[in-house]
Every structure is written in C-alpha cells, then in structure tokens.
Give the backbone structure.
Amino acid sequence: IIYMLEGELFITENAVTRRLSAGRCTLINSGVIHATKCTARNKAILFQIPVDFISLYIPDIGTRVFTLDDPGGNPIRQTKTDIFKETLQKMQVANDIRPEGFLLRFNSLLFEILFQLYHNFSVKIFEADLTHKAKDLNRLHVVLDYINQYYNRPISIGEIARIAFLDSGYFCRFFKKHMGLT
C-alpha cells in the first residue's frame, strides 16, 4: 500500500505505468511484479502486510485481489477510501510518537486496515483465473532465475523461450505483458 502525502511517484504494474500524486493511495497485490520510480523528493506512507500474516485472519486470501485506486467520482467509494487513508495516517502517528500502549493502538489499527481491505476493497476471483495467474507467475520465475544465472553471457530469445516452454513470438508477448518491457 502506498499513500502519497507529498510529491509524486511513478508505478509500473502489469506493463502499465501510472503517476501517483499527493493525496492518492494505491495497493499492489502480492505476487504482482512491479516497479516504482521517484523523479523528485516525495513523502509517502509505505505499508506492507505479509501474506502469511493476512492468511491467519483472512483464510480465503488466495481467492481475493484487492483494489485501492481512484474512486472515480463514486461518493461511497470516496468515503471508504478517505477512511482508509485516515486509518493509515493514524498508524503512522502511533508509530512515530509511540505513546504508552502504542502496540495496542497500532495493532487495533492494523486489524481495522485488514477489515477495511477485506470488506471494502477486495474482489473474489474465480479458480480458473487463479490457476492461470499461478502458471504465468511460475513460468516467469523460471525465466527470471535463468536470466539471473546466465546474465554474464548473451541469451537468445529462442533459448529463453525454450526455458519457458513457449515459441519465440509468444514468449516476447508474454514477457512484455508481464514485465512491461521487451
């Protein structure tokens, strides 16, 4: 979760780059390959929640994706997003000041965030979508591991496509789709 307080940040996710400006908040789901780029000074709240922790309290976490982007003029969605951002700010204040009983306050806000994510910002996905996503992610990990192992020598498109069990043309489209670059 990234909540921009000042400045801006560029986020590339699923081959799409977008600008996150002050006052905006976004969420990047676990397992999504992404990158961020700061072109100027900024201030943000960055909040990462390990999937292993979330799965203790949200048992069906593997069947959900979270969306926390522009409410698009929907007043109900805007109110939910504003409450979410306020909760993040309260967590930041509790962490910065660390008053007596800080851990109780922080943990209560953490569980409030989890509830808000689950109730207001999650969508259940179908098993077929999960299977396809897992297959793509596994294939991508094999490719990236291979590139990392042999980065010091030229690797042809044909060679790396064979590692992914794809033909060269399809591999190029697959890699661009998931990585955002050729």
The first strand starts at residue 2 and ends at 6. Residues 26 and 68 are 5 Å apart (CA to CA). The longest helix spans residues 75-97.
